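Table 4 source record.
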Amino acid sequence: MDGATLKDRGDSAERIAEDFLQKQGFEILAVNYRFGRYGEIDIVAHRDGLVVFAEVKSRETDKFGGGRYAVSRKKMRSLQTTARHFIAHRFNDRDRLYRFDLIAIENGTVHWIEDIAR
């Protein structure tokens, strides 16, 4: 191990994901958006009328499916509750498009999985 804590690795993965989304043309609206005890969204980003709520997972290996399989039903419910709070408090119009994405950083490679709530 290189001495980095899990939090350090998670923070680094979030910065990589933020940079990745910006390179895809997204504006970052929030990072680590919290709604009390209900949950946290790693990154909220916006592009062309679409708001993306991104969960970031970092794995050193793809053992057990890697980060791509790390979002449980319970976590998805937490993301949805937190996203509803964000929408209600940050946007006046309800006609925007919203999506939940997963950005998995595995062995230094970014995997972007769109629309994980489907």
